[in-house]
């Protein structure tokens, strides 16, 4: 397994202008005839042999310009087809392969989910269907004919527009032909065949074209696709309004399947989805699920322009489509819901996964320069940090200039396979700025640490702010250069008055925008006319993906929480106060001292709770304590999750005790009124109520338990029911077991709801949970082959139950490695992803570190390990 390097990029030696695919669907022996029209690429090596990619393929026959080739005229292995002598002019190649969709447990290529046939080709799954130049810079026009048994697969779908369909005489077979006029890379190919229900709608584009929309789901679940359909129409309108992007085919189809390696896939005109991101009803889906559906539907739809019309030259450019499309879906969610609340949850997500990734052995640049297995690079760094880079670019050049740059990008690179340089060149042109330093963000791994120091001079009435940056070494990258960091800032007087910024050390537009740029290792700014020591609001709106150190003094944080006009920094102030209070408890526990209380923080929370009606969603976020994962990340080294968990629970009890009456009042005040609506306002009220319930349970377990049981019984929607069950799960005892049992009985036939049932049990933070998880693995509803179910139980255990997963007896690590090794031969992508839950293992204290290291060494030593899992294990040991 040789590494692939960005610097080794060479254009393909051949181009494939058109592809005609003919599928005869069969459960175990599907026949595929691919007719390719090829010609030499003027940019390729003259006279080069034609080498096509394959993966576990069986070649049936091969014809060149209509003539059957003998075995001495080519070389075919399961993973390569080589023709050393091909014409210099254009020619056609007809390749017949046979594939077994039922045996395809990797869920890459053509496989079966339930009784349906479906495909997943990104990144390199097309080569598991036919031999091809399976690389994103080879763009072709596809025609797809599908033939199948009409009883088994009445629905036959592929990319593009439907051309023709009919019955085949003498039997029960039928066919459909689809044509996609837009040249695309093979990773965007898709096909679906099955017996599916459908929801239909239509959309009139900005230029008045009618697009037929359809979402295909399991029969009987049509009503649950209505929210997804609504989200789709809103996405289509939004992309027209905000980016001027119109949809381009006559149809847009979405198919929901229950066996899927990730969230969804943006195949041209035929998105295939994990049904988790399509199906929702108030009884089965939470507010979080609805928000997730809205975001993923939008994300895949937005790929039509950022990913499909303009694709990536090579897989190193993955962030070009992913980071940009995440940025677009974030903006969409911000417009559909609450912008501040959306921003806070983006940053929470970034810090939960991307920051640890960037600080650990799996760290890599947003645009990596080398990979062994590309599927392991669909990471939080490429997606979420990639999105932050686009956001920073917009912050630096301004929203209008950014939009002009996007217009240039769409205009200039439509129909091509582009690079990050191509993308940046559009913004350099639109803004007239040199973006070469900005480009470092794409090549340099690691989270920069931004530190600040302030000094007030009461005589001169000046305030001097010193900003410094430093990026620590990451694997393979020791020397880090300073990057450009847009630092949004404001100064407030003691009583909350926002001060005008005056300084000779900043450009006038920096002062008027409240945005200074740190480009070197250090910058000093002296602000004038500052009447008293100011309160500094730094990195407002999280203007750059950096770690800000140190947090301001607690008294300043309390003031910021009270009057900062940047909601993100108000939330940040609450988080910083909570972190300080928890770490004070950690220190005390380590010294055997009594737990220190945090009266200032608790008083600030009381104000938030009492005033929650103004913005319940925001209050719910500000009232939520950092998770144990947050604590581990902030500690950075010598992590003992038990100590962190205990300190966190201690603070939770302190808050619950102090705010009991206010929490009970809030719980009553925010009771659901009227029918459930999955909108942001309703979701905010329910989130606040869940926080209130948790506080009541923290302060008075008996009262909390009683309220939770009542809510569990009478909940009118899944959001409330799950909040109640979460509280009961934490409280333990017979009530918990009874609730889990009744939940199971009620939803035993609903896989997506059962996933929640498995997850919640896996995350109970008490020692017995590991045994519970092991027992659940023999539950009749558990399955190692369904990725959703596997992630629900084992993924949740390893990623969200730190005390059990990192148990000192090694039982959590045993469980994870056993499952990873069991799943690996069947589904390497999912196994490797599970193993990535060890991304932060080096920050653990010594005993746990030794346990993990031994496990990783054991995995690497295994024979027959997949390239995916080997890659993660090897890099994790770096
Ligand atoms: N582009 C796909 C991800 C494919 C992952 C392949 N291992 C979904 C998305 O990001 O929209
Ligand atoms: Zn994407």
UniProtKB/TrEMBL annotation:
Belongs to the peptidase M1 family. It catalyses: Release of an N-terminal amino acid, Xaa-|-Yaa- from a peptide, amide or arylamide. Xaa is preferably Ala, but may be most amino acids including Pro (slow action). When a terminal hydrophobic residue is followed by a prolyl residue, the two may be released as an intact Xaa-Pro dipeptide. One of its GO terms (biological process) is proteolysis. Keywords: Aminopeptidase, Hydrolase, Metal-binding, Metalloprotease, Protease, Zinc. Signal peptide: none annotated. Gene3D superfamilies: 2.60.40.1840, 3.30.2010.30, Neutral Protease Domain 2, Peptidase M1, alanyl aminopeptidase, C-terminal domain, tricorn interacting facor f3 domain. Residues 227-438 form the Peptidase M1 membrane alanine aminopeptidase domain. Its EC number is 3.4.11.2. Residues 446-549 form the Peptidase M1 alanyl aminopeptidase Ig-like fold domain. Its cofactor is Zn(2+). Residues 556-878 form the Peptidase M1 alanyl aminopeptidase C-terminal domain. Residues 75-188 form the Aminopeptidase N-like N-terminal domain. Transmembrane segments: none annotated. Aminopeptidase N is involved in the degradation of intracellular peptides generated by protein breakdown during normal growth as well as in response to nutrient starvation. One of its GO terms (molecular function) is metallopeptidase activity. It is an enzyme of class 3 (hydrolase). This is Aminopeptidase N. InterPro entries: Aminopeptidase_N-like_N (IPR045357), Aminopeptidase_N-like_N_sf (IPR042097), PepN_Ig-like_sf (IPR038438), Peptidase_M1 (IPR001930), Peptidase_M1_dom (IPR014782), Peptidase_M1_pepN (IPR012779), Peptidase_M1_pepN_C (IPR024601), Peptidase_M1_pepN_C_sf (IPR037144).
């Amino acid at each position: 397994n040789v590494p692939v390097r960005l610097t080794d990029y060479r254009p393909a030696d051949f181009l494939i202008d058109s592809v005609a695919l003919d599928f005869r669907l069969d459960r175990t022996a599907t026949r595929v005839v691919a007719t390719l029209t090829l010609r030499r690429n003027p940019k390729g090596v003259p006279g080069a042999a034609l080498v096509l990619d394959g993966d576990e393929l069986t070649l049936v026959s091969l014809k060149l310009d209509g003539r059957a080739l003998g075995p001495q005229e080519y070389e075919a292995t399961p993973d390569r087809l080589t023709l050393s002598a091909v014409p210099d002019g254009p020619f056609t190649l007809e390749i017949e392969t046979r594939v077994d969709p039922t045996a395809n447990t990797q869920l890459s290529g053509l496989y079966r989910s339930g009784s349906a046939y479906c495909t997943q080709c990104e990144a390199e799954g097309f080569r598991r269907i036919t031999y091809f130049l399976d690389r994103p810079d080879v763009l072709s026009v596809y025609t797809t004919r599908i033939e199948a048994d009409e009883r088994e697969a009445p629905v036959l779908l592929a990319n593009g527009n439907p051309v023709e369909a009919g019955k085949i005489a003498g039997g029960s077979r039928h066919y459909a032909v689809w044509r996609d006029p837009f040249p695309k890379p093979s990773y965007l190919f898709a096909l679906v065949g099955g017996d599916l229900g459908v929801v239909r709608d239509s959309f009139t584009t900005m230029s008045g074209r009618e697009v037929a929309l359809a979402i295909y789901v399991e029969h009987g679940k049509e009503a649950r696709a209505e929210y997804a359909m609504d989200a789709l129409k809103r996405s289509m309108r939004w992309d027209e309004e905000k980016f001027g992007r119109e949809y381009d085919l006559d149809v847009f189809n979405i198919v929901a399947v229950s066996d899927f390696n990730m969230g969804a896939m943006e195949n041209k005109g035929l998105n295939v989805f994990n049904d988790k991101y399509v199906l929702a009803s108030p009884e089965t889906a939470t507010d979080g699920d609805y928000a997730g559906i809205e975001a993923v539907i939008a994300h895949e739809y937005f790929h039509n322009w950022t990913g499909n019309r303009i694709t990536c030259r090579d897989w190193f450019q993955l962030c070009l489509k992913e980071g940009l499309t995440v940025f677009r879906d974030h903006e969409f969610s911000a417009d559909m819901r609450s912008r501040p609340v959306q921003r806070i949850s983006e940053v929470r997500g970034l810090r939960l996964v991307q920051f640890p990734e960037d600080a650990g052995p799996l760290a890599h640049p947003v645009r990596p320069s080398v990979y062994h297995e590309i599927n392991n690079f669909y990471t939080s760094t490429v997606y979420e940090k990639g999105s932050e880079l686009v956001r920073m670019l917009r912050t630096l050049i301004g929203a209008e200039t950014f939009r002009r740059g996007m217009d240039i990008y769409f205009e200039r690179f439509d129909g091509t396979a582009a690079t990050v340089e191509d993308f940046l060149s559009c913004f350099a042109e639109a803004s007239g700025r040199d973006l070469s330093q900005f480009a470092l963000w794409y090549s340099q791994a690691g989270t920069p640490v931004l530190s600040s120091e302030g000094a007030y001079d009461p005589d001169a009435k000046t305030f001097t702010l010193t900003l410094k940056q430093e990026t620590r070494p990451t694997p393979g990258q020791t020397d880090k250069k300073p990057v450009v960091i847009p630092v949004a800032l404001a100064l407030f007087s003691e009583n909350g008055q926002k001060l005008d910024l005056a300084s000779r050390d900043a450009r006038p537009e920096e002062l008027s925008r409240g945005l200074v740029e740190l480009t070197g290792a250090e910058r000093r700014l002296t602000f004038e006319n500052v009447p008293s020591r100011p309160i500094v609001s730094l990195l407002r709106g999280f203007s750059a993906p950096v770690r800000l150190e140190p947090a301001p003094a607690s008294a300043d944080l309390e003031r910021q929480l009270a009057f900062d006009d940047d909601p993100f920094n108000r939330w940040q102030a609450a988080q910083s106060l909570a972190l300080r209070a928890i770490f004070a408890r950690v220190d005390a526990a380590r010294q055997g001292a009594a737990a220190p209380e945090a009266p200032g923080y608790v008083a600030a929370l009381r104000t938030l709770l009492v005033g929650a009606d103004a913005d319940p969603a925001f209050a719910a976020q500000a009232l939520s304590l950092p998770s144990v994962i947050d604590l581990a990340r902030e500690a950075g080294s010598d992590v003992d999750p038990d100590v962190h968990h205990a300190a966190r629970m201690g603070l939770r009890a302190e808050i619950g005790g102090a705010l009991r009456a206010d929490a009970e009042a809030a719980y009553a005040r925010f009771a659901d009124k009227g029918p459930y609506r999955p909108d942001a306002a309703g979701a905010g009220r329910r989130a606040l109520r869940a926080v209130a319930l948790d506080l009541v349970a923290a302060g008075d377990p008996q009262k909390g338990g009683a309220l939770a049981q009542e809510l569990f019984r009478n909940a009118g929607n899944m959001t409330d029911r799950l909040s109640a069950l979460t509280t009961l799960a934490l409280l333990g005892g017979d009530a918990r077991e009874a609730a889990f049992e009744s939940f199971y009985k009620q939803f035993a036939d609903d896989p997506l709801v059962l996933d929640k049932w498995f997850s919640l049990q896996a995350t109970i933070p008490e020692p017995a949970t590991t045994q519970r998880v092991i027992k659940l693995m023999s539950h009749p509803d558990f399955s190692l082959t369904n990725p959703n179910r596997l992630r629900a139980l084992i993924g949740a255990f390893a990623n969200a139950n730190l005390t059990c997963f990192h148990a000192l007896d090694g039982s959590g690590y045993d469980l994870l490695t056993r499952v990873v090794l069991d799943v690996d031969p069947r589904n390497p992508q999912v196994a490797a992803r599970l193993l990535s839950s060890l991304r932060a293992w080096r920050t653990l204290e010594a005993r746990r570190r030794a346990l993990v290291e031994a496990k990783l060494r054991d995995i690497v030593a295994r024979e027959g390990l997949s390239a995916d899992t080997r890659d993660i294990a090897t890099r994790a040991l770096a």
